[in-house]
Amino acid sequence: MTTERPAPPLTGGEREMLRTFLDFHRATLAMKCDGLSDEDLRRASSPPSTLSLLGLVRHMAEVERTWFRRVINAEDLPLVWSDEGDFQVAYDASSSTRSEAFSAWQAEVEQSRKIEEAAESLDVTGHQARWGEDVSLRLVMLHMIHEYARHNGHADFLREAIDGVTGA
Length: 168
Description:
Oligomer: single chain
Shape: globular
Strand order of the largest sheet: 1-2
Helix content: 55-70%
Distance between the termini: 14 Å
Number of strands: 2
Number of helices: 5
């Protein structure tokens, strides 16, 4: 499996740049998982942390769902892996498979893209209940880029500890 990653534009409009940088980071996470078995993807390779690549994929499915569907689109739906709203459940990938985790993540990414594309502008707002504040789609896009970039750094270390592969 080889993941293709879009090259972010060097010039262009704000929305195009945000969209492409977000897709760049989404693809980077997928690339970090390329060529690994389910067992490798579940491996917590930086003890004592239990974090795994598959746990990161599951977590990002929750993050996509929360920010785009629950916040911007105001959908009243539970998290992917926790009806109680516990974000930590996603990190436990001990019984998960690539198929299960990636299917959920890719479905959430597809929904996120549809919501972003349908939005009139980056000024569209939604309510972030945890903060008790309204937030713009612009903030959500920037936050998502930050979230992926941070977790892709974790993925770098996790992947290198599994098989020595570095870079993205």
